[in-house]
Design the sequence.
């Protein structure tokens, strides 16, 4: 008899993934034994979960096996993580969004750091691993800022009844 798993739990998400992929394929995906991954589905071993890299690999394999689930939104372990994170942060005050002009100027400033860093890194004719890491970090920060800008633009557009930004 199968143990009941709390819907919305990591154990339930892992159970769904392993059931879809089959235990051998799921175990191979994360390079663990079938017994090891079975503990991730067991509510009696609720302290045993895949690490972030393993969870990512399992969610990717699940979505590839079930493309109808809708991409990342259908990833079971990510869904549990997001639901719990949102619940934990629900009561925190939210920063006021920047006005469009300030947001664009902020993103442009982030973007401007990258060419300066590239020029400085190549000043001696080659780029070091440390320089490459710094430039990569700046690019990640830029992407983060662009994502915030997109969210704010979409929120503003929705609050204006689809009329767009002025």
Sequence:
């Amino acid at each position: 008899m199968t143990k009941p798993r709390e819907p919305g739990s990591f154990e339930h998400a892992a159970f769904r993934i392993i059931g879809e992929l089959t235990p051998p394929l799921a175990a191979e995906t994360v390079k663990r034994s079938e017994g090891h991954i079975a503990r991730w589905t067991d509510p009696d071993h609720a302290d045993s979960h895949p690490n972030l890299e393993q969870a990512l690999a399992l969610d990717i394999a699940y979505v590839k096996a079930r493309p109808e689930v809708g991409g990342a939104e259908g990833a079971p372990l990510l869904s549990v993580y997001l639901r719990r994170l949102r619940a934990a942060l629900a009561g925190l005050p939210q920063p006021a969004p920047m006005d469009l002009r300030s947001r664009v100027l902020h993103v442009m400033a982030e973007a401007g750091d990258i060419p300066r860093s590239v020029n400085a890194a190549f000043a001696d004719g080659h780029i070091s691993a440390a320089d490459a890491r710094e430039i990569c970090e700046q690019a990640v920060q830029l992407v983060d800022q662009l994502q915030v800008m997109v969210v704010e633009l979409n929120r503003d557009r929705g609050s204006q009844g689809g009329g767009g930004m002025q």
Q: What stands out?
A: Helices lie at 10-21, 23-30, 34-39, 52-65, 76-89, 100-121, 129-159. The two ends are 61 Å apart (CA to CA). The chain has two domains: 10-89, 100-159. Residues 129-159 form the longest helix (31 residues).
